[in-house]
Structures are given as structure tokens and as C-alpha cells.
Specification:
By secondary structure, the chain is an alpha+beta fold. The protein has two domains: 89 residues, no CATH class; 112 residues, Alpha-Beta Plaits (2-Layer Sandwich). Helices cover 27% and strands 27% of the residues. The chain has six helices and ten strands; from the N terminus they run αβββααβαββαββαββ. A hairpin with a 5-residue loop joins strand 9 and strand 10.
């Protein structure tokens, strides 16, 4: 599943929704499709334990029916963990995303990267080059990394994830490798949570905001 692209995942979910009896709202025009959006596009090759998509419905349906219907329409490798209902005036899930938690599993050079992570955490500023749609720009990687820790084998990082300020885990690994003086190793990346802040400024998983 980690090699399914973002656009393919969207099409996959739309086809699954088309197979259900849910009262899904469709777009207008020549080629109507379910009104669906995914919060925080996941990079190709990354794994995830926490993906959120939202659809607009027309009419009413109870949670148990919606949950069972979606689970029946999707394969076991893409389990639906929960269904939440929100009013139309509630902010979109994507707009709630401010940061994400990752576990990074280097395939080599673990000790060097873990040592570099401790040094990185103590620094005030570490500049790096971020690739964007409009080209490359310099960013302060340290300020975009909210937190980082290690168990000696894996790295756990909380990274900014907004339209203006995003730090991808591969740039973090490139930065740590530069600090360690090594070539960036191959890594497995897994996203654990998508996070936002509630009205009191408390960091929470986006599905728990407004509950």
C-alpha cells in the first residue's frame, strides 16, 4: 500500500464510495465524482497508521452503517478505523493539520544518526534546502522540527506540516547525515499521527479536535 500514489489513492477511494449505498454528494458537471478530500497527502513509499479522508453526504445515515459499509467496500490492507460526523461549517480536516508525528527507521548508520539527532536537538538553527513546486529555497530545518527523539535504532520526530511551513522526513535525515558526516542512508518512514491545535492551543490528533 505504501507504493500507491496520492492521486491513485483518491481514485481508489472514489471507486470504493461508488460501490456503497451511502448518500454521498457528487460534483456537478459532465463527469460527476464523489466530493472527497484527503488530509495531508502522504509521500510515495511512506507508510501510515493514521490517514484521514472526508466526504460530503446528502441525507442522514448512522455511524455503524457507514462504518460497516466502508469496511466492506475496501480491502483488509486499508482498514477503516472510525467514522466521524461533522457539520458543514466545521473546518476541513486539511485546514486543521499543523504537524505530523513520524517514526523513521534507518536501514544503516543508526548509531551515527541517533548521535547527530542529539546534537541537532541542542542547536538553535540548522539551514537546509527544501524543494518546492516553484524551485528550491533555504529553510531553517531546526525550527520546523518540533521535537525529535531516538531509542538507539529508530528516530521519532514531530514535524511541521502546513502549506507555508513543511518539513519532510527525508530532508530531516539529509540534515542529520550532514551533521554526522555520512551519506544519507535508506530509510523506512511511517506517519503515526496528523496533529492540529484546539481553541486552547493544545496539540491534538485532528480527529479529536472539536470532539
Amino acid at each position: 500500500m505504501r507504493f500507491v500514489s496520492h492521486l491513485d489513492l483518491q481514485r481508489f477511494l472514489m471507486r470504493a464510495l461508488n460501490r456503497t449505498c451511502l448518500p454521498i454528494a457528487f460534483s456537478k458537471g459532465f463527469n460527476p465524482h464523489p466530493l472527497l478530500s484527503i488530509a495531508g497527502a502522504l509521500a510515495m513509499g511512506h507508510e501510515s497508521d493514521y490517514e484521514v479522508f472526508e466526504v460530503r453526504i446528502e441525507g442522514s445515515i448512522d455511524k455503524d452503517t457507514a462504518l460497516k459499509t466502508m469496511r466492506d467496500a475496501l480491502p483488509p490492507d486499508m482498514p477503516i478505523k472510525d467514522v466521524l460526523f461533522r457539520e458543514d461549517n466545521f473546518p476541513s480536516m486539511m485546514s486543521l493539520v499543523k504537524m505530523a508525528d513520524y517514526v523513521i527507521m534507518p536501514q544503516s548508520s543508526n548509531a551515527e544518526l541517533c548521535k547527530a539527532a542529539e546534537s541537532f536537538k541542542a542547536m538553535d538553527s540548522v539551514m537546509g534546502i527544501r524543494k518546492t513546486k516553484s524551485g528550491e529555497r533555504e529553510v531553517d530545518v531546526r525550527k520546523l522540527c518540533i521535537d525529535i527523539s531516538t531509542d538507539g535504532e529508530k528516530l521519532y520526530a514531530r514535524l511541521m506540516l502546513t502549506e507555508q511551513d513543511t518539513l519532510k522526513p527525508d530532508l530531516l535525515i539529509k540534515t542529520l547525515s550532514d551533521i554526522a558526516g555520512i551519506e544519507p542512508p535508506a530509510c523506512r518512514y511511517k506517519r503515526l499521527k496528523l496533529l492540529g491545535t484546539d481553541r486552547d492551543g493544545k496539540i491534538k490528533p485532528i480527529t479529536e479536535i472539536g470532539v
